Amino acid sequence: MTKAVGQHVWGRLLGEKAGGNGRSALLLTDPKPETASDASLTLRLAFVVMGTEAPLFPSFLIDDWGGEVRGTSVYSWVRENGNQFPRAEIFGFDRQGNSVQFFVRELELYAKPLCFAFAHRQTPLAEGKLVHAILLPDAAVSQPEKIKRPSEIKRPLASARVTWWQVPPDLSHFNFSLLDDAQASEFI
User: Fold this and answer.
1) For residue 6, with 0-12 CB atoms within 10 Å meaning exposed, 13-18 middle and 19 or more buried, which class applies?
2) What is the DSSP string of the chain?
3) Gap between the Cα atoms of 161 and 3, Å rounded
4) Structural contact between residues 134 and 28, judged by C-beta atoms closer than 8 angstroms
5) Quick check: 4 and 56 in contact, CB under 8 A?
6) Cβ–Cβ contacts within 10 Å for residue 167, how many?
7) Which regions of the chain are under pLDDT 70?
8) Other C-beta atoms within 10 Å of 137: how many?
9) pTM
10) C-alpha distances in angstroms, 52 versus 47, 49, 94, 116, 150?
11) What pLDDT score was predicted for residue 116?
């Protein structure tokens, strides 16, 4: 079992069908559930290692004075202090679950963290699904609509490298070509 930082949510993972790019979307039904259920998933955000684009799943950080930062506070510490304290050390895991250690200066500080979804907290890191879109059920919409991240979604999930969508509550599959259209429109 990995000790990588994780966030418990309720939702359902939707995957792109064969012939696509293997993308995943998370139908997020509750970002902060009180209890575990059949809808429970664990989200883990990974920093990007500079020059390799490899994900680093953090466990904890040791600052320049030897203080430890644990849990989701690691993300806010890096965001707020990463440039001022590049010698801080971050400990975590690579995609294969191997223990790794980096200086904060070795991270892409301006890259949004990658979001991975896991069926269970104990699921190996290599089996996590990279999430490309987060879908929020809304009875007021009849088809998926790209939106800005809602203000009630807090960090670290709010900082993830995903697009945000409102979708009908009964959505059973997601048209992943919408992601291509959304990405193309951002560059126009």
Assistant:
1) buried
2) ------EEEEEEEEEPPTTS---EEEEEEESS-SS--TTEEEEEEEEEBTTT--EEEEEEEE-TTS-EEETTHHHHHHHHHTTT-TT-EEEEE-TTS-EEEEEGGGB-TTSPPEEEEESSTTS-GGGPEEEEEEEEE-TT-SS-EEEPPPTTSPTTGGGSS-EEEEE-TT-----THHHHHHHHHHT-
3) 22
4) yes
5) no
6) 21
7) 1-2, 17-21, 181-188
8) 15
9) 0.89
10) 11, 6, 12, 18, 31
11) 96
Tell me the C-alpha to C-alpha distance, in Å, between residue 180 and each of 110, 171, 176.
23, 19, 7
Q: Which amino acid is at 58?
A: P
Mind spelling out the 3-state secondary structure of 88-134?
CEEEEECCCCCEEEEEHHHECCCCCCEEEEECCCCCCHHHCEEEEEE
Residue 68 to residue 123: CA distance in whole angstroms: 26
